[in-house]
Write a structure and sequence with these properties.
alpha/beta, Rossmann fold, five-stranded parallel β-sheet, globular, binds flavin mononucleotide
Length: 183
């Protein structure tokens, strides 16, 4: 059996998310047995339980990072999780091999649309550089990225736009679950 860990890095999934909340909810039923690591729920004070997080990572075969793109990178809560948990001797360094061979999938939502990112030099992949470099350092395999573009928080008060975002988030979750099951 493949053990899947879904790390939800939205800092306010519980009360200020539409896309990530929908995706995480859908994934819990689409990937039965997956461990959902909802960081905002576990660590509202940003004080990460390093041993607990390392144990969850060690038990996983596939790690899905689910987060909204904030200022072109990981939100601070997910950044803090990486900084605290991926330490020398665990994830890297001569004795740090706990993550080697695991597969990493990046599922990221954005406010801007696909056309905005395809017009950028290097396209959307440039915003995945930290995840890819982290895989190279730790021996994880970068298994792929699934962006969901154009789900801006700015449109949430428009009922039709909101319904469309929920629907596209559901479809995204289904695509992601299919992708993970094929790994
Ligand atoms: C602090 C902040 C920074 C953001 N930075 C970006 C960004 O750099 N690029 C982008 O396309 N969208 C950006 N957005 C929009 C979010 O990515 C978008 O609202 C989110 O993916 C929607 O997911 P949610 O409904 O789960 O919050 C930002 C939003 C916030 C609140």
């Amino acid at each position: 059996m493949t053990n899947v860990l879904i790390v939800s890095g939205h800092p306010r999934l519980g009360d200020d998310s539409l896309a990530n909340k929908t995706i995480v909810e859908e994934l819990t039923s689409l990937i039965p047995g997956a461990v959902v690591d909802q960081l905002d729920d576990l660590y509202p004070d940003y004080r990460i339980d390093v041993a607990a997080e390392q144990a969850k990572l060690a038990a996983a075969d596939v790690i899905v990072l689910q987060y909204p793109l904030w200022w072109y990178g990981w939100p601070s809560l997910l950044q803090k999780w990486v900084e605290d948990v991926f330490v020398r001797g665990f994830s890297h360094g001569s004795t740090g091999t706990a993550l080697a061979g695991k597969k990493l999938v990046v599922s990221v939502t954005t406010g801007a649309g696909e056309s905005y990112y395809s017009a950028q030099p290097g396209g959307f992949d440039r915003f995945l550089a930290p995840a890819m470099a982290t895989c190279a350092l730790t021996g994880m395999e970068f298994a792929g990225s699934l962006p969901l573009f154009g789900v801006s928080y700015a449109n949430r008060t428009d009922e039709a736009a909101r319904a469309d975002m929920v629907e596209r988030s559901r479809e995204h979750a289904a695509r992601l679950a299919k992708f993970v099951s094929a790994l």
